[in-house]
Amino acid sequence: MKIALIGYGKMGHEIESVAVSRNHQIVLVIEKDNLADLTVENLTKADVAIEFSTPTTVFQNIKICLEAGIPTVAGTTGWYDKLDEAKRIMLQNNGTMFHASNYSVGVNLYFRVNKILAGYINKVKGYTPSIVETHHTQKLDAPSGTAITLAQLVSESIDELNGWTLLPDKDSNKIPIEAVREGSVPGTHVITYESEQDEIILTHRAKSRRGFAVGAVLAAEFLVGKKGFFTMDDLLSI
What we know:
Layout: E1 2-6, H1 10-21, E2 25-30, H2 40-43, E3 48-51, H3 58-67, E4 72-74, H4 83-92, E5 96-99, H5 105-124, E6 128-135, H6 145-157, E7 164-166, E8 175-181, E9 188-194, E10 199-205, H7 210-222, E11 228-230, H8 232-236
Parallel strand pairs: 1-2, 1-3, 3-4, 4-5, 5-11, 6-8, 7-8
Antiparallel strand pairs: 6-9, 9-10
Helix pairs in contact: 1-7, 3-4, 5-6
């Protein structure tokens, strides 16, 4: 498979390493110094594009890929206000797009476990969830896309809750999220369900960026021969 890699920071380098180890070829690399090379002509050399850039550039990058007819794996977070517009462009061009807030297989299993637990909590009542997410200091968006997805899944399963809020803002009907930025942490998410009697704590801790890169390449492989919009649920058949 021939891959166009858009965004060549630490994640981009990790994706390249994983892709090459799985016998794929990187035919185009776009980074901040050669943005002008992201053209339809150059993209046609690739079978698929994997986009991990920045929240301010991701939408335009994806738009160009979809208009060029290139299946696109969207990995950048912090741009969800434009996701529906990207889907519209995809449909207009009879294209293919894969989107996830987190490409780690472990994180997506973590999502499912929390959704099941939240369903039980909705029946027994008495537990209040809160989330703490910790990432490296170079992460630009807060809260993380993973924390947002986690909060949405849990909120949808508990009748008394309606979405999330980023601390220090508080709302009794929303799940509070604390965003911590320190060191070189790849990503740690902790959700606590607290009652007067006890607390349940579930943690996912990424050891490196490798897990995210593996998931992104698996997503690219999954898109071969497909049309439409896909997520990690489709990849994992959850």
